[in-house]
Specification:
The protein is an alpha+beta fold. It has helices at about 45-60, 105-115, 135-140, 180-185, 190-210, 255-265, 265-280, 300-315, 325-340, and strands spanning about 5-10, 20-25, 70, 85-90, 100, 105, 115-120, 120-130, 155-170, 175, 215-225, 230-235, 245, 250. Strands 7, 8, 9, 10, 11, 12, 13 and 14 form an eight-stranded antiparallel beta sheet that branches. A four-stranded antiparallel beta sheet has the order 1-2-4-3, with helices on one face. A hairpin with a 2-residue loop joins strand 13 (about 245) and strand 14 (about 250).
C-alpha cells in the first residue's frame, strides 16, 4: 500500500510485458513525505479516482498514451459512472527496488533489473505560474528561464510558456535534478520525449480546468517505459498531483500543507530537522528521527477539505456525482481556513 492508495495486482508484469492491476483509492492523505496521517478526509478517495479517470480519458482523446484502463472492477469509463467509486484499473510495469548504501542511491542496479519495462524513477513537474514561496525561486534565477526581470518579484509570476523540471520519484526525500542527472536516472527513456509529454499533458489539463472556471497553476506526471514507448502512469490532474485556483483562491492539497504549517508548526519543524539529520548521517530513513507526530485535523477543516476534493471531481465530471457545494462556495470555505477560521 502507498500512503494514500492500495495496490492490487491481477497479472504480474514481466521484463517484457505489462501486467494488469488496480489502484484502490482511500480517504487517507499525506503531507511533507510523512506517509499516512492520523485521520482521513471524507470523499477524498473516490474523488481522486473519478477526477483522475476523467483526466486520463481526456488525455487518451488527445492521443496521449496512458496506463489507464477504466474505473470500477469492470473498467468502466467515467461518463458511465453515476456514483462514487474508488477502484481504477491500470496496466502495470515493473518497479524495481532502488538500493541505498553509503549515502547514495544505486540507479545502475535499478536499471539492471528494470530492463525495458519499468516505472521511470522521475517525477516530471510542469509550472504555469511561479508563486511567492515557490522552491523554484530558491533554486533558480529568472534569467535561467528566459524571463525578462533580473530578480523574482514579490508577486506570483504567470508564465507564457510552462517550465518543466525533474525530481526524484523513489528516494525518501524528493530532490530536484539537473538535466544531466535526470537524463541518467531516466535510463532508456528519452528526456526530450518526457518533456514534450509533460507539456502535452499540461495543455490538456489546463484547458479542462479553464472550462470549469479553474486556473491550472502547476502539476506533475509519472511515466512508465515499455518496449520503446512512454506512457503516462500513476494519476493525473487531481488536487493531489496539481494545484488549481478559483478566482485567486488556491484549491489543492497545498491547503493541507499550509494548514499544518500554521496550526502544527512543531511537527512541521521536527520533520525538517529529521530530514536534515538523516542527510547528515547518510541514511535514507528519516521518520524514526522525528521527535514528534502530527495532530489530526479538526473536523470542520476535514469537512472543508473533503468538500474541495468532491467539488473538483464534480466539476471535471461535469455532473453532481458527489454531494458537495459548487466550486465558488468551496473556494469561500477554503478562504476562511486561510484567514484562520474553522
Amino acid at each position: 500500500m502507498t500512503s494514500v492508495k492500495e495496490f492490487r495486482v491481477s497479472v504480474e508484469p514481466t521484463p517484457t510485458d505489462l501486467g494488469r492491476g488496480a489502484f484502490i483509492f482511500t480517504d487517507a492523505y499525506s503531507v511533507f513525505d510523512w506517509g499516512q496521517m492520523p485521520d482521513d478526509i471524507p470523499n477524498k478517495g473516490a474523488a481522486l479516482c473519478l477526477m483522475g479517470g476523467a483526466n486520463f480519458e481526456a488525455l487518451e482523446n488527445a492521443g496521449i498514451p496512458t496506463h489507464y484502463l477504466g474505473v470500477g472492477s469492470s473498467a468502466t469509463r467515467t461518463t458511465d459512472i453515476d456514483e462514487p467509486v474508488t477502484e481504477m484499473m491500470i496496466e502495470l510495469t515493473q518497479t524495481p527496488q532502488l538500493p541505498y548504501a553509503d549515502g547514495e542511491y544505486d540507479y545502475e542496479a535499478f536499471h539492471e533489473v528494470a530492463g525495458g519495462n519499468y516505472l521511470i524513477p522521475l517525477e516530471i513537474v510542469f509550472r504555469n505560474e511561479v508563486p511567492v514561496g515557490s522552491s523554484l525561486r530558491r533554486r533558480t534565477a529568472p534569467e535561467d528561464h528566459d524571463l525578462e526581470f533580473s530578480a523574482w518579484p514579490d508577486v506570483a509570476v504567470t508564465l507564457a510558456e510552462p517550465i518543466v523540471e525533474f525530481s526524484t520519484k523513489f528516494e525518501e526525500t524528493d530532490r530536484y535534478l539537473s538535466t544531466e542527472e535526470a537524463d541518467e536516472l531516466a535510463g532508456a527513456a528519452d528526456l526530450t520525449e518526457l518533456t514534450a509529454l509533460a507539456k502535452a499533458v499540461n495543455q490538456v489539463i489546463t484547458e479542462r480546468a479553464a472550462a470549469v472556471g479553474l486556473d491550472h497553476l502547476d502539476g506533475k506526471i509519472e511515466c512508465l517505459y515499455h518496449d520503446g514507448e512512454i506512457k503516462v502512469a500513476d494519476v493525473v490532474g487531481t488536487f493531489d498531483e496539481n494545484r488549481f485556483a478559483y478566482d485567486g483562491q488556491q484549491l489543492s492539497k497545498e491547503i493541507v500543507r499550509q494548514y499544518y504549517k500554521a496550526a502544527d508548526p512543531a511537527w512541521v519543524n521536527a520533520v525538517a530537522a529529521a530530514k536534515t539529520e538523516a542527510a547528515d548521517r547518510g541514511v535514507a530513513e528519516w521518520r524514526s528521527l522525528c521527535e514528534t507526530t502530527p495532530q489530526p485535523l479538526p473536523s470542520a477543516v476535514r469537512d472543508t477539505i473533503g468538500d474541495m476534493y468532491a467539488a473538483g471531481a464534480n466539476a471535471f465530471l461535469e455532473r453532481q456525482v458527489f454531494v458537495a457545494p459548487p466550486l465558488h462556495a468551496v473556494a469561500a470555505e477554503v478562504s476562511a481556513l486561510d484567514a484562520g477560521g474553522e
